[in-house]
Amino acid sequence: MLDALERKIEQFINELNDETTQKLYAQIPAGKRLRAALILKIAPHTLSSIKLAAIVELIHAASLLHDDVIDDAFMRRNKPSINASFGNKTAIMLGDILYSKGFYELCSIDTKVAQIISNAVTQLSLGEQADVVLSKKFNASKHDYMKMIYQKTASLIEASSEAAALLANKDRVVYRNYGRAIGMAFQIIDDILDITASSKQLGKPAMSDFVEGKTTLPYIYLYEALQENERSKLLSYHGKKLKEQQLAWIEAKFKEHGIIERCIHEAKALALEATLMMQQEGNESLQKIAQDMVDRDF
Ligand code: FPP
Ligand code: MG
Questions:
Q1: Cβ atoms within 10 Å, residue 66
Q2: Same domain, 167 and 126
Q3: Do residues 94 and 169 share a domain?
Q4: What integer pLDDT is reported at residue 298 of this predicted model?
Q5: Which of 87, 200, 247, 252 is 20 to 30 A from 193 in CA distance terms?
Q6: Which residue segment(s) compose the domain that 283 sits in?
Q7: Where do the DSSP E strands lie in the chain?
Q8: What is the number of the ligand closest to the CA of 100?
Q9: Ligand 1 atom at shortest distance from the alpha carbon of 191
């Protein structure tokens, strides 16, 4: 299945007929191909579904190229990011090329599918903007965080699932809800791993979210649990490069209040919700995808 996908992506890149793009694209590690796997598990393998899977992966890769510029991130998937190796201009242009090729190809699939995917890309962009805006100060609102991760991450997973259901003549609403639930679980786990995993596991520096100003779910819950004077201390650490001792204080407070367990529990509840939806559909491999989403360490 994934062979056909890789061949389709390669074909799209070769059709650009541009050596610079081919060389640069070869520098991007493939990643988990989560969105493509989802599409190809929902829809039978036809030209349209393989194309859709390849398009979504191109759009996803484009969004990460731009995201690494926005986040000033120098590592991606255990390798130097494209912006780190070739500069911001190259990363932005390569993102634009992949994104526009994806949209060109999207036009030759069903109009409704094209609408679902392009709407998700608008949501991605709004979500990325919200992430940047929220990072300017300590965001203590869970509502704003949940809305932002829905837009930034869950929307494209939700759209992939819904669009694949449409191609497969399955119940769009069920698959859309399933995609949203696993997308939310995925980002919450990602945000937990930033705190609990090593940089080797993550393929990028660990504990970088808070330094970048991102107050993810664990920090929001921690803020709620702290005493007034401790809250001031946490706020004074926000958006700064922290010393070992300061990081150790945050970690101790996470432990004291059982924050990480609480967040894992919340992600697992979403994964369970998604699993139950697929139990009703009788789809075992999608139940497994939902479980894998939360049982991962990178
Ligand atoms: C990673 O978040 C970022 C995203 C999932 C979405 C990025 C979206 C855009 C830049 C807008 C859309 C642009 C195009 C060209 C389609 P993160 O920084 O929390 O995760 P990370 O740690 O993996 O970087
Ligand atoms: Mg980023």
A1: 20
A2: yes
A3: no
A4: 65
A5: 87
A6: 110-298
A7: 75-76, 79-80
A8: 1
A9: 19
